[in-house]
Design brief:
Layout (H helix, E strand, L loop, with lengths): L5 E4 L2 E9 L2 H9 L1 H4 L15 E7 L13 H4 L4 E12 L3 E8 L2 E12 L2 E9 L4 H23 L6 H16 L4
Antiparallel strand pairs: 1-2, 2-7, 3-4, 4-5, 5-6, 6-7
Length: 180
Amino acid sequence: MSEYGQVLDENTVRFERLLPGPIGRVWEYLVIGNKRAEWFCGGDTDLKVGGRIQMLFDNDNLSDLPDLEPPEKHKDKNGKMKFAGTITRCDPPNVFAHTWEFGEYASEVSYELTEQGDQVLLVLTHSRLQSSEDVLSVCGGWHSHLELLDDVLEGRKIRPYWKTYRHYDAEYSARLGRTD
C-alpha cells in the first residue's frame, strides 16, 4: 500500500488508507453530512442508489490551527465550494459511490471499506475524470482530506487544510510531472 495515490489511467486515481475502526464508524464519516464535514465536506446524503448527495466544502474552517491562505487557483472560492452528485452504489458499511458533477460532466468517486482486524482498509477511487490534468488536480485535495480523516478518526487535532494541501499539491505536481 502506497501513501500516495496511484494513477491508474489518464482518468482515474486510487488511494488506499488503513484507518482505525470499527468499520461502522468509518462508514459514518463517509455518509453522514455533519461527520463528513469534519474532514471533507458537509451536505445531505439520500443514502440509496439514485439518491442525491450534496458536497458543501468549507476548507478554510476544517481546522482550528493557524493555516496558510488558499493557493491562487482557489482564492476566488474563499475555501467554499458546492457540488452535487447521484449515489451509484450503496452497500452499508462496505461500499458507497456517487457521481461528482462538474458543470457539463460527472466523475465518480467510490469508497470501499474492508475490515482488517481492528482497522479498516479504505480504497477510494476517483474515476471518469476528463483528463490526466484533472487527475492531477484532484490528487493533492484527496490526499489532504484523507490526512484530515485520519486525524479525526485518531482523535488528534485536525491539521490545517491549506498548509497540508499546498504540500501535497506540490508533491503530486513533482511526482506526476506538472510544471506551472
